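Mods, move this if it's the wrong board.
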Amino acid sequence: MKRSTYLILTAILTSLSINAQSLKKEDLYGSYTLKEINYIYTDTTIQVSPSQDGFFILSPRRYAIAYNPGLNPRKPFGNLSSPSEEEILAGFRSFAFNSGSYRFEDGVFTASPDFAKVPGFEGGEQVYATEVEGAMLHLSMYDETYPSGEKPAWFKKLVIKLSFQKEVAP
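Not the wrong board. Structure tokens:
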């Protein structure tokens, strides 16, 4: 990887975490609805308005996150009780989900799933820079480590910024 690419991504993450360093994890507790996804590469950003609501929930001991990472709504199975192999594969690809324990230190949210969409990712880690603007919570995933210690192909090439709005009780 080019050093300049890494430096650009580092600058983006540094700017995102400046106001988050004074946050306490208690400030983030609650339920949030996904409003926007930005796939940030060094030379371009792809902005996605979710076609379906995703969510992020944070409690004192657990987190849960679920969303459709793509541009199109998920397609319902033709027969809900007997989907085709093609429908199962499309359903799997149109959904991101993890839930588990976490750490929050110096504005960095580190998720460690004990239940994940991808079998075998349990015990891995996803690392997010955090930023809060009013009722908006921005989680920018810049690192992921598989339980084996390996990194994904996008490591140091992509930041996935998820923007959530805090839900208000009725």
